[in-house]
Amino acid sequence: MRSMQVNGTSADPILRPVEVAQPVAGEGEVLIRVYAAGVTPTELLWYPTSHTSTGEPRIDAIPGHEFSGVIAALGTNVHGLRVGQEVFGMNDWFAEGATAEFCIAPPESITAKPSSLTHEAAATVPIGALTAWQGLFERARLQPGERVLVHGGAGAVGLFVVQLAHLHGAYVIATASQRTVEFLKQLGAHEVLDYLGAPFEDGLEKVDVVFDGVGGETLERSWGALKPGGRLVTIAAQSEGVEEQRIKDAFFIVEPNGRQLAMIADWIEQKTLRTFVGAVVPLERANDAYRGEVRSDGRHGKIVVSVLGTN
C-alpha cells in the first residue's frame, strides 16, 4: 500500500512516500480503508513517533492518528461492526497511523461516521473533539455556570473547547487573533481577547478553569488567572516532560475513546457541534502539510490529507 513515513533527523523530520505491506487485522482489530487523515504537525516531534511503547528507538513511523474511512476487514472476536461500514476515529500514538491507504484500529476507538460529514470533514474531529472533551470534563471537571478561559480558541482543539464548554453551560472567554473574534462568538464564546493586545489577565475576572493550548509564557501567566481551587489543563507540546510538578499534573495527551466520539458524532448530526476543514491535500503532499507549507487561505480548521480524493 502507499504510505508516508517519518524520515530525517528527530530535530528536522520529513515525510517520504513508501510502499509498505498492507496491514492485517488481528484478533480484536479492525482494518480501515483510509479515505482521509487529520494532520497534527507537532506529532512528528513527539516521543511516540521516535520510540516504541517500551522505550526502544522507532524508525519509519507512519503518522496521522485520526482518520475517516471504511471498514475493510474484521479480525476475530470483533462484534457490532461490519465490512463496508463508514467509520471515523483514532488509534494509539504508538501504532502506525493513517497517512496511508490502510490502518489498524481497535473497535473501541472508532464509531460510525456522521452521515452529514464528508470523510475529509470527519477526519478533523477525533483528536480535537476528544481532547476538548477529556480536558474539560475528565480533567477539569467543568461545571455549568463556571468561567473557563481558553487559550488558542480558534485552533484545531480550541474551537471544540469553546463549543463544548458553551454547550455545557459555562461562561467562555477565549484568547485568539483579532480576525477570529466573530468566528469564536458564533461558536459560543462570550468574550474574545486579542492575544496581541493588552495582556489577557489585565482586568480579567478570575476563572474556574483554564484550558491552555499555547504553553510557554501564556501558560505561566495563567496560574494567576485562576480562582482559589481553580483547575488548569494544558496540551502544549513543550509542557511534556517538564519538571515543574504543577505543569506535569496539568499536562495530558488525548486517548482514543469510541464511546465519547459516538456522543460527539450525535451532536454533529444534530448540528449543535460544528467542525471545519482548513485545507485538503493529496497523500503525496502530506510532508508539506506537516511542515506548515499548506495555506488555508483564511479558513478555520485542521488541514486534512485526502488519501482517495475528495469524498
Key features of this structure:
Quinone Oxidoreductase, Chain A, domain 1; 14 strands; 5-stranded parallel β-sheet; 311 residues; 7-stranded mixed β-sheet; alpha/beta; globular; 9 helices; Rossmann fold
Structure in words:
- By secondary structure, the chain is α/β, with parallel strands linked by helices.
- It folds into 2 domains: 156 residues, Quinone Oxidoreductase, Chain A, domain 1 (Alpha-Beta Complex), CATH 3.90.180; 123 residues, Rossmann fold, CATH 3.40.50.720.
- It contains 9 helices and 14 strands.
- The strands form 3 sheets. Strands 3, 4, 5, 6, 7, 13 and 14 form a 7-stranded mixed β-sheet that branches. A 5-stranded parallel β-sheet has the order 10-9-8-11-12, with helices on both faces. A two-stranded antiparallel sheet has the order 1-2.
- Helix 3 crosses helix 4.
- The longest helix is centred in the middle third of the chain and has 14 residues.
